[in-house]
Fold this sequence. Notes:
Blueprint: H1 12-16, H2 35-44, H3 51-63, E1 67-71, H4 74-84, E2 92-95, H5 101-109, E3 113-116, H6 128-131, E4 139-145, H7 154-164, E5 167-171, E6 179-180, E7 183-184, E8 191-195, E9 208-212, H8 215-225, E10 230-233, E11 237-240, H9 251-261, H10 264-282, E12 288-290, E13 297-299, E14 305-309, H11 318-328, E15 333-335, H12 341-344, H13 346-354, H14 376-383, E16 385-388, H15 397-413
Parallel strand pairs: 2-3, 2-4, 4-5, 5-8
Antiparallel strand pairs: 1-9, 6-7, 6-13, 8-9, 10-11, 12-14, 14-16, 15-16
Amino acid sequence: MTPDHRERAAYGAEAVGRLQGELPNPFPRILGPRALDYLREVVESGLTADLVGRFERALAETLGVKHVIACPGCTPALQVLAAAFDFEPGDEIIVSPITDYGTIAGLVRENYIPVFADAAPGTVNLNAETIEPCITDRTRAILVVHKTGLICDMDPINALAAKHGLLVYEDACQAFLGRYKGRLAGTLATAAGFSFDAEKTMGSDIGGAIATDDDALAERCRFIGQSRGAVQDPPFGRRHVEPGYAFRMPQCTAAICLAQLEIIRDQIAQRDRMVRLLSELVNEVAGVHALPIPDYMEVYSAWMFGLSLDPAQFRCSADDFAAQVAEAGIPGAGTARYYLIPAACTFLHERAQAGVYPYSRPPASRRYSYGAESCPAAAAFLDSFVRWSTFCEKYTEDHCALAADILRRTAEANRR
């Protein structure tokens, strides 16, 4: 095999841990004071301490759900959910267009067909109005993404899904303990996937989880996702009656997650306060608009901060603006066109155009095409969108004022 010399994508501390600037970096992460106690318990027990079960129960109580299934990451959590649903190859899943590959990885592996609804104008999320035109007789589910921690308007989405007999589930990886109309992100539909990767709001070394109130779905997630689709058949032993995975959270990861869960509420409250203050300050800068925070968002568990530029007011591109902001002291500032998954996942377009399974007919019922043109509102939004991935609970009012001042000075230096 010829060596692949392409530059691989970086994540977590490798991606942002060394970024320098005038504002806080999430790394080194603040860890719960009992983290070492829990890790020591794993070691001293000879790996017999059930930290995974304890974390699952603690998280279920925090979320107010019946079942939590701990996973080694957010991508595996969503992959297990995709495998657990009773869908067929060629079935369509409507998905948010502005997200991460992990959202659709399970759909691809199960040979479902992702259909990207456009974003609502002026924001990063889809809504019921952009979803409805995408529904066909092959649609089976809607997978919503609460991007940056902004929760989608779920009541209209759930009503639309009920009208068409569709399942709804959530990618809540960036919205941990965000609150929508009195309810928590990840409890607003049939099931949800969460992330506890190092850079996420509740950062562990890695990790993820599935949450649901559905008894049958929870059992199937454990069967498919952790027991590898195997049953005990005495005296023969294990028989693998379905293809499955061994996506089990490690005990040491669970130990850190449990410690993080004990301190996360105060951290999210601080994120909520600071993102609202920063948004107010940024909106005072002419031509710069923070991501709008909907009225229904009672707690904004912000994972990153984002803003839009009015191109008519500036001489520079969004890329140049972001580079100047980063140079001025905001670590991690940049544009994020790669979040447009219909354009970023080039393999989808190639497979669809070539009619490669599941895009062959059958099982597909029609031709598909992927690219920026398939979600024009989302593509246009990301063309003028600047974000930084280092927003965190370490922010204070002074940090917000400094960030707004950097944006103000950069805006004035580039104003037409």
